[in-house]
Amino acid sequence: MTPNLQMEQYSLTYVRAVANGAGLQVTRPEPDVDSVDGVISSTTGKRPRIDFQAKATTLGMPRDGNVHFPLSIKNYNDLRAETISPRILVVLLMPKDIDDWMTQSEEELCLRYCAYWLCLEGYPDTTNSTSVTVEVPTANILNVDQLTSMMGKVERGESLC
Which pLDDT belongs to residue 63? Predict the structure, then answer.
């Protein structure tokens, strides 16, 4: 498997681990033609769901309270579209050295570093032809508490943006 494919699988594993911690399930649509790598959903209440596009990068640590991530125009346009199910971009920061991606012992499995999320619904058109650099706030850590809060907003019909 190439390092890029490994990074893709690593980002999906990260999302699955957080969703599992929140008591949610993740499914994968096939094929991914609409910039949706997966769907996080609940089996309780109104069955809220969030579609997500997962990315991973070794481009470096956040600056100015944001992760600066170059997103392809296709993904940018698909993620900013108005949809019935909210969509988020998930960006996982990873160490450059593959040997540092995770550590494991009998007591823990540690995945490095951290994933952040961004809702792009309503973002403006762009004249860029290949990519748009989006700023993902570091306050938007994809963790159990934030994911639970996001699902509550979706269930109440509130925006994630």
Answer: 80
3-state secondary structure string, the chain?
CCHHHHHHHHHHHHHHHHHHHCCCEEECCCCCCCCCCEEEECCCCCCCEEEEEEEEECCCCCECCEEEEEEEHHHHHHHHCCCCCCEEEEEEECCCCHHHCEEECCCCEEECCEEEEECCCCCCCCCCCCEEEEEEECCCECCHHHHHHHHHHHHCCCCCC
Residue 135 burial by CB count (10 A; 0-12/13-18/19+): exposed, middle or buried?
middle
pTM of the model: 0.92
The predicted pLDDT at position 153 comes to 96
pLDDT digits (tens, 9 = 90+) for 84-108: 999 999 999 998 888 888 888 899 8
Q: Identify whether the C-beta of residue 90 lies closer than 8 Å to the C-beta of residue 69.
A: no
Strands 38-41 and 49-57: antiparallel
The answer on pLDDT for 122 being more than 80 is: yes
Tokens 């991973």 belong to 56
144-155 and 3-21 helices, crossing angle to 10°:
70
Q: Does the structure show a pLDDT above 80 at 59?
A: no
